[in-house]
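User: Can you recover a sequence for this backbone? Please restate the input before giving your answer.

Assistant: Of course. Working from this structure:
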């Protein structure tokens, strides 16, 4: 059985932002008017799409995506997605990987803001805003589209014209949580509260955003992991917190990392209301980082919680730099604190 991985490496600026619809952050495909050939749930899978040359079902060729039947009447197909992380959408990637003779000719996307408990009737009555007007697609490709609309969205409607298959829908943006979720002691680094991993010096084996995803990682591939360091120095990652926050405890979880966990870690904080670019953390040596946690020993496959060890916690911080020595993998970072100034 031949398995072919999608090989597209295209990167655009907004694709560095977190995928708000991904199944790993709680995204759900609520409805599709037709998913005869391939299930609607495939649209938001975390894994890249694959093609298995000789795999068929009793309905036809197996495809790793959402695929409707050939339309023999007027109209178009659509599906509705509930974002795992409500937010402001900056760009879309409508990925038609491996759909070549059966991809939609055009697509459009609409968004709306509803409550978490929204019913089917609420979705029907919703005021849908155009995020992407009807736009041409290419087959077997990642189709990137910037989004101008800056309202908060909780649900999306993907329309394809007239029918066909889409492998993945990636919805890149900034999280805008409900204000009620930011009260009291919260994880101010979590994606769900508006935390953002701005940059990392290395993410060869595991992507930066994994560090702040909900829940514990299911396996080692769901953490942040760097390559083996063969020279001097150490690896680091920078997280923008949900706002200015006073910190109480920090958790560094090496769950699943056993022969490749970092030997030690340290944490530094930065007090600033400036929106830094990733390059700023490489090219501006004058940033005034404060030591919050000195170099501390780590263990394999273990949740390390640091409370009384923290220093300089009388100030409110907006950015953290987590240093690992010399390299390795961290599953999750949790930063518990109270927000003095929130995002949004």
């Amino acid at each position: 059985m031949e398995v072919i991985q999608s090989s597209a490496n295209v990167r655009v600026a907004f694709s560095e932002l977190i995928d708000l619809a991904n199944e790993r952050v709680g995204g759900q495909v609520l409805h599709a008017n037709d998913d005869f050939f391939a299930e609607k749930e495939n649209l938001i899978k975390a894994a890249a799409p694959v093609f298995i040359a000789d795999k068929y079902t009793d309905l036809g060729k197996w495809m790793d995506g959402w695929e409707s039947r050939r339309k023999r009447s007027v109209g178009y197909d659509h599906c509705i997605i509930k974002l795992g992380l409500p937010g402001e959408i900056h760009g879309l990637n409508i990925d038609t990987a491996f759909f070549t003779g059966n991809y939609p000719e055009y697509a459009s996307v609409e968004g709306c803001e509803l409550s978490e408990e929204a019913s089917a009737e609420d979705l029907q009555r919703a005021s849908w805003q155009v995020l992407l007007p009807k736009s041409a697609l290419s087959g077997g490709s990642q189709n990137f589209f910037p989004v101008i609309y800056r309202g908060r969205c909780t649900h999306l409607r993907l329309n394809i014209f007239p029918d066909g298959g889409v492998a993945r829908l990636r919805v890149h943006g900034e999280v805008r949580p409900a204000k009620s979720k930011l009260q009291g002691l919260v994880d101010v680094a979590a994606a769900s509260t508006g935390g953002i991993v701005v940059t990392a010096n290395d993410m060869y084996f595991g992507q930066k955003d994994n560090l702040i995803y909900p829940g514990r990682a299911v396996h080692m591939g769901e953490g942040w992991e760097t390559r083996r360091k063969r020279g001097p120095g150490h690896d680091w990652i920078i997280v923008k917190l949900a706002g200015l926050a006073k910190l109480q405890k920090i958790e560094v979880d090496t769950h699943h990392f056993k022969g490749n966990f970092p030997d030690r870690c340290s944490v530094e904080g930065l007090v600033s209301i400036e929106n830094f670019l990733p390059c700023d953390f490489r090219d501006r040596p004058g940033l005034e980082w404060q030591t919050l946690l000195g170099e501390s020993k780590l263990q394999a496959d273990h949740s390390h919680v640091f409370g009384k060890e923290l220093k300089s916690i009388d100030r409110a911080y907006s950015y953290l730099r987590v240093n690992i020595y010399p390299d390795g993998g961290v599953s999750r970072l949790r930063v518990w604190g109270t927000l003095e100034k929130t995002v949004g």
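That completes the design. The domain at 3-175 is CATH 2.60.120.260 (Jelly Rolls).
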